[in-house]
Amino acid sequence: MSSTNQAYSFFQGVERNFDKAAKFTRFEKGILEQIKACNSILRIKFPVKIGNDIEVIEAYRVQHSHHKLPCKGGIRYSMDVNQDEVMALAALMTYKCAMVNVPFGGGKGGIRIDPKKYTPFELEKITRRYTSELAKKNFIGPGIDVPAPDYGTGAREMSWIVDTYASLYPGELNAQACVTGKPIAQGGVRGRTEATGLGVFYGIRELCNVEEEMTKVGLPVGIAGKKIIVQGLGNVGYYAAKFFQEAGAILVGLAEYEGGIYDAKGLNLEDVMAHRKNTGAILDFPGATNFSNSADTLEQPCDILIPAALEAVIHKDNAAKIQAKVIGEAANGPLTPDADEILNKMGVIIVPDMYLNAGGVTVSYFEWLKNLSHVRYGRMEKRFSENMNAEIVKNVENLTGKRIGEAERKMLLRGPDEVDLVYSGLEDTMISSFHEIREALKMNQGVEDMRTAAFICAINKVGVAYEELGIFP
Fold it and tell me: Is 36 a catalytic residue?
């Protein structure tokens, strides 16, 4: 986080955005206060033997909303983990799930460690102990609270969690559904790894396909030819950059913690990744300009800026220097509310995190459903679809007297695999949710930005759920 933002409270920033949108909803103050509040906060400290020493590990799990169960949200391993951050991220998960019609309450977890300083064996000990602490306090379970990967964690950590949970609850039929983002062999779903980055691509692509929106910022319709800067080459940033490049966008800037590079003519993502693997940094890439301060890369000329790292990277001190016409929040909370106000006045379209990076939780929902149904997607219909398609092709060939070419035949006969169905479900979710936000923008006079419109959509859905629960006598 920038040194200029040390006093910035991420959770208060989320609340500020909530309050801005709440004025446009019909709910009374009491219901709004219930929606806004964190329902359960678990702060734990536990000892773990590391080498010859015992370390006391600080960890959190926050369940923001119980309007729907289970709660859902990732676990991050970072020295920046604190209660304020975890509360903010849990709150965002509530609104994110509501925005994309995923029936979960928001949750989030974090362990305050630098994962790079531990061996895999030590990380496994920490992860398993954390899981058992969550189980003791009833903060994990297929119908209670379902974690997922986040910053500093991945499929490996999720496999340790599911194994620990299954050992604590022997015979639990749905144990695999206690966590998502698992390896395929442990009940994971194909397409989960790239889901968040792909969702970012689908969301921005839909925006760029709307002529009215592109006219506002003076850009042509479509993704092809748009100049893009991506900050963060982790899982989300890498896949977002990959899908943009494959769709014909020009990657002009890439930024990582060690610095940034910029080339107005375009950067080849895979060449940059190979260079980083060989040298240990993206800096000094042939033909590109170096920026020793990663944040300076965000201020370079581009059409679309994708911050895909940590929160508060664009704040009141650098917002006015941003040259992008569109900002897609691939990270959680990369813009502070002050930056929001400055950029909105500049006419920049900000596609908010609570919608744009919801690809991860959407596909996590698909994984959770797969685990509960105990059957992979496509198993029931793939062969049926192929047989039906074969009949159609045969009839067309008989009617026309012409044989379809082998390449076309192969494409037409193909039935959907799991990853095809996952991509399709994610694409539909991102497109329909985008137009829901646009509709809220048009329907609410005085609302001029997508973030407020997205919050309005989310608050309305959570508020209705609380009303239907009948918890307000």
Answer: no
DSSP annotation of 411? H
Find the domain containing 203 and state its range.
Answer: 190-381+416-473
Residue where one domain finishes, among candidates 143, 171, 186: 186
Residue 148 belongs to a domain: yes
Output the tens digit of pLDDT for each of the chain's 473 residues. 443 445 678 888 889 889 999 999 998 898 899 999 999 999 999 999 998 999 999 999 999 999 999 999 999 999 999 999 999 999 999 999 999 999 999 999 999 999 999 999 999 999 999 999 999 999 999 999 999 998 899 999 999 999 999 999 999 999 999 999 999 999 999 988 899 999 999 999 999 999 999 999 999 999 999 999 999 998 899 999 999 999 999 999 999 988 999 999 999 999 999 999 999 888 888 988 888 888 899 989 999 999 998 778 899 889 999 999 999 999 988 998 889 899 999 999 999 999 999 999 999 999 999 999 998 877 778 877 878 878 888 888 788 888 888 888 888 888 778 888 899 999 999 999 999 999 998 888 888 889 999 999 999 999 988 887 765 54
CATH number of the CATH domain containing 179:
3.40.50.10860
Sequence-distant (6+) residues with CB within 8 A of 289 are 261, 262, 263
Neighbours of 344 (CB within 10 A): 17
Annotated catalytic residue within 36, 68, 108, 242: 108
pTM tops 0.85? yes
Co-location of 331 and 467 in the same domain: yes
C-alpha–C-alpha distance, residues 187 and 370, integer Å: 8
In a domain, 147, yes or no: yes
| Cβ pair 359, 97 in contact under 8 A | no
- 405 within some domain: no
- Domain membership of residue 18 (yes or no) is no
